[in-house]
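> agent: user asked for a holo structure of the chain below bound to adenosine-5'-triphosphate. Plan: (1) validate sequence alphabet, (2) canonicalize SMILES, (3) run complex prediction with ligand conditioning, (4) return tokens. Step 1... ok. Step 2... ok. Step 3 dispatched.
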Amino acid sequence: MNHEVSFYVDAWAKVKNDLEIGAIDVLPLVGRTPERDALFDFSVPYLVMHGAIVVRDEDDSIHSFADLAQKSVLVMQDDNAHEYLLRKKGDYKIVSVPSFEEALKILSQGKHDAVVVQKLVAVQLIAKLKLPNLKIVSANIEDFRQDFSFAVHEGDKELLAILNEGLSIVMANGTYAKLYKKWLMPFDDKNPQLENTIKILVSLLALLVMISAVGLLWHRSLKKQVALKTRQLSESKNQLAALNDSLHHRIQNAIAELKEKDQLMITQSRQAAMGEMISMIAHQWRQPLSIISMIANNLSLEAELENNLENSQIQTALQEINQQVQHLSTTIDDFKNFFKPNKEKQSLHVSQIVDDTLHIIGSLLRNNTIEFITEIEEDREILIYRNEIIQVLINLINNAKDALQGNKNPKIIFRAFSDEKGLHLCVIDNAGGIAPEILSKLGEPYVSTKALSGTGLGIYLSKMIIQKHFGGELTWQNLKNGACFCICLPQ
Ligand SMILES: Nc1ncnc2c1ncn2[C@@H]1O[C@H](COP(=O)(O)OP(=O)(O)OP(=O)(O)O)[C@@H](O)[C@H]1O
Ligand SMILES: [Mg+2]
């Protein structure tokens, strides 16, 4: 794994202290105990050993841990066994020496009563030191099981990861099995039970290390994936922010554009209304003006012929002229009132509304020789904004008048009737109907078949007025001979 490592061998207490004070980075074969957990971090365990009690051959008084009471027990200074005995707080005397070799030798020489040590270590040392007068009792001290791992400084996660990875590699490639066979197997021959235990132990360890190796690899790939996803997320976030920004701009622009269009529409509709008003005033004025002109002409003719005009003749002519001027003035007032928006609703009969409408538009119809028929089922009184309803009716009648151009028998019927939906005011003509190509779009702004002479706002604005001001509906349909536009006012 390309790591330079230097080793040295020393007494357990010394190397353990070296790790504690940071003089070394890692210590192998360290049994994991609660005391040590507080000081070090541990790799996955790669060896599990149980503690055993070693006594002299002739000693028959010690068979289990409980039998150590009142005895003098040897341990290696600061070893697991030492910590274990201290932890158990038994009624024994603990004698600590620097190494197991020494402990076993002292025991063999007849001093003290027992050594508490890992069983594998005991078997190996008794053979190596040739101490035949020693025997192992209590093969497995029940709760003195030790997991041996590499120990590193508390928090040194990086080194721990390297060690765990190394362990998983040697487990996977068979090195661990070879080492185990070379150093630990010789003792197995002597003890078939131990062999089984070790086999199980090795399988378990292999499994454990495999799991931790898989875990490590999984952890790494997970880390990579998390990093990738985090990067992607932050990229998406940036893109989203940019999109948001541009969206905000686009919305602002669209709103500004809409406002501009609205403004344009209002101006156009006002201009159209002004144009309509002027043309209607012109229509209304044509008759009285020609009467005035006629009276004036007659007067001047008579003056030429008679030379001496009677005062009474002049008076009559002037009265007539005055009457016509009054008529002109009333017309102006009518239009002025009509173009002033109503602030309050008025209570009006249906017939009154029709009359007031005809007052404004009647001469236009007469000039176009259009027959206007009124069919009112029931002349009810309704509460309404007068000018608005008249404006809508004028729009509808004007449209009918336009459509009736060139018609031999032009007719407009105004029909009023009530049903469960409300009061219906309909304008029906015999001009052949609405052109099919605009039928589905009618009601939207700028829909017109009149080229330059129409703005295409009449029906749209009428619909708005009926909906917004009266909470009603403006609908249309083609009948057999012409179009039918109906205002429905809820009761
Ligand atoms: N009574 C009708 N018969 C046949 N077509 C009609 C009738 N009323 C309206 N239309 C059609 O509907 C179109 C839209 O009418 P609208 O009143 O909205 O606009 P316009 O009359 O064209 O222009 P303006 O805005 O000046 O009134 C007309 O151009 C016409 O084609
Ligand atoms: Mg119109």
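> agent: step 4 complete. Summary for user: Residues 12-190 form a domain with the D-Maltodextrin-Binding Protein; domain 2 fold (CATH 3.40.190.10). The mean pLDDT is 84.
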